[in-house]
Amino acid sequence: MCSRAIYKSLQKVPNVANVQEDIEHSSYHVQFNNPALISPEKLKKAVLDAGFSVAWMEININFHNTEVASDSSLKFNDLIFYFVGVNKQLLNGEKKLLIVDKDYLQEDERKKITSTYAPGLSGGRGEKIYHVTLSKS
To answer: Mean pLDDT in runs of 10 for the chain (137 residues)?
Structure first.
C-alpha cells in the first residue's frame, strides 16, 4: 500500500513520463518527458503528499567536459547545483548527483558527507540552490 500511494502521487507530477518502483530497495526511478524541466521540489512534495518522507534523492545528469570541485556551482537548465565533498575533477557522461539538502537526505547520512554544507542558499533571481555530491551508487 505504501509504495502504491507514492507511485500514484509521483505519476501526477507535471512532466513525469514514467515511474518505476523498486519495492526491494524502497526506491523509485522517475523519467521525465522533458529533462530540462526536472523539479526536485515537486517530486519531494509528491512523496510528502502521499504521507511519506524522502530518504534520499539522486539526479542523473549527462556531463560534457565539466569541471567540478567542492564549493563550486553549476547551473543545469533552471537548477543550480552547489558541490560539497567533491575532489576537483572533470566529468563526462552520465553521473548521479546526490542531493544533500535537508528533506532530501536523512540527517545522519548528510552529516557523513560534509560538515561545511550551507543549507538555505538561493540564487540571485530566487532560484533554489541544491547542495549535491557525486553519488557512489
So the answer is: 85 95 89 89 94 92 94 87 93 94 83 56 65 87
Q: How many Å apart are CA 66 and CA 71, to the nearest integer?
A: 15
**Residue 27: in which H helix or E strand, if any?**
strand 27-32
pTM: 0.85
> Mapping DSSP to helix (H, G, I), strand (E, B) and coil, where does residue 82 land?
strand
Taking CA 5 as the corner, what is the angle to CA 29 and CA 109, rounded to the nearest 5 degrees? 55
Element spanning 43, H or E = helix 40-49
Q: Rounded to 5 degrees, what are φ and ψ at 129?
A: -100, 125
Please check whether residue 77 is in contact with residue 34, taking contact to mean a CB–CB distance below 8 angstroms: no
| CA–CA separation, 135 and 57 (whole Å) | 10
Q: Which residues contact residue 20 at a Cβ distance below 8 angstroms, ignoring those fewer than 6 apart? A: 28, 29, 30, 31
DSSP type of residue 78: T
Spatial separation of the C-alpha atoms in residues 69 and 87, rounded to whole Å:
5
